[in-house]
Amino acid sequence: MTAPRIGVDLDKIEQNTRVLVDRLAPVGIRVTGVTKAVLGSPGVAAAMLRGGAGGLGDSRVPNLDRLAGLGAVRTLIRSPMLSQVGRVVVVADVSLNTEAVVLAALDRAASLRGRTHGVILMIELGDLREGIAVDDAPAAVRAVLGHPSLRLVELGGNLACQNGIVPDDRNMGVLSRLVDAAEARHGIPLGTVSGGNSANIGWALTSDDVGRVDDLRLGEAVLLGVDPLHRTPIPGLHTDAFTLTAEVIEVAVKPARPWGDRAQAAFGEAPVRTGRGTVRQAVLALGHQDVALDGLRPPAGVTVLGMSSDHLVVDLGDHAVSVGDEMDFGVAYGALLRATTSPFVTTVEHRASPVGSTAPRP
C-alpha cells in the first residue's frame, strides 16, 4: 500500500460522535459535525451522522460540495468570500456571516437562483476573530430580516481558536441575552443558537445553565477525542482514530551532533541536536509538504530529530527498522489538517464491517 498514507477508523469516529451526542443531549445541545480537518470526507461525515450529528459544517466551499449526497444540512462555517457567494447559496444551506456587503450579495445570489439561504450572525465574544460587536448586533439582525431571500437561522459565537479565550457562563450568557432580545424585538423565534466549537464541551457539561445555546460545531473532539483548550483526552473517547504511516528510506548509525559552521536550515533555525557518540538514525519519506511537525507523535522510544520539505529524521532508539519498513505516527489537529490536505498523502478509510470499508481520497 502506498505511503505516506493516513488511516481513518470510521467506527471510532462514529463512536466518538455518539458519546458526545449522548452527553450533550441532557442539557439540550445538538451536534454539528465539522469535516474541515479531513478535507470534507464523505466517509467521515457519514460516520458523524451515524453517530447522531444533526448536520455537517465545513469552512471550504469545495468540501461542502463533496457532502452533497448525504442528505444533511450543510453549513459554511467561515464567512463567505464575495467572489464565491453564487456557489455558496448552491452548496450550503446556511453560512456564518458578519459583513453587510456579503449579506446583500448572498441575498442577490439566492434570489437569482430561486433559493432562500440561511444565515448565522456571528457575535464577537472576546477571541477577536470573526464576529459583530455586541452593540451592532441589533442592526445586523434587522439587516438580515430586510433581505427577502435570506432567513435568519440563529446567532452564534466562536471562542478559543484565535486567542485561546475560554468559553464560560459570562461570554455564553452574552450570546443568550442577545438571542432573547432579538426574539422579543422582532417577534421571531430563533430555533438554534450555535454556541461554539469543541472548546465549549467542558463548559456545556459543567455549567448550571447553558442558556439559549443548543448547538455546538464539533470537529477536533470528534476526530481526535481531545479537549482543544488543553489538548487533553476526553474520557470515553478514542484518541487514535487516525494513523499516519510513512516509509523508511535510509537507516544508518550517525554522529549524534552535526559538524561544521552553522547557518539557517531549510525552514529557518534548525533544532539543536545534543547528545554524545552516535545514534541509530532513520530517514522517512515524509516532510513539511505532508504534515505539520509539531503535531506528529512518533512511536514510543522513537525521537524526532528534524524535518525538511520531504525528509523526516528520527532516532530509532532500540527499534529494529530496515529500509522499506513502515512506521506509524499519531497526529494532533494541525498534523491531521496538513496531512489530509496534502496531495502526497493518501487517505484510507475503513470500518469493521465490509460495507464501505475503504474510501481512498481522489
UniProtKB/TrEMBL annotation:
InterPro entries with a match to the protein in the record: Ala_racemase (IPR000821), Ala_racemase_N (IPR001608), PLP-binding_barrel (IPR029066)
GO molecular function terms attached to this record: alanine racemase activity; pyridoxal phosphate binding
Gene3D superfamilies given in the database record: Alanine racemase (3.20.20.10)
Cofactor(s), by name: pyridoxal 5'-phosphate
Residues of the Alanine racemase N-terminal domain: 8-222
Entry keyword annotation includes Nucleotidyltransferase: no
Keyword annotations of the record: Isomerase, Pyridoxal phosphate
GO CC annotations on file: cytosol
Top-level taxon in the UniProt lineage: Bacteria
A Pfam family it matches: Ala_racemase_N
Keyword Isomerase included in the entry's annotation: yes
SUPFAM superfamilies xref list: PLP-binding barrel
Cross-referenced PANTHER family: ALANINE RACEMASE, LYSINE RACEMASE
Record protein name field: Alanine/ornithine racemase family PLP-dependent enzyme
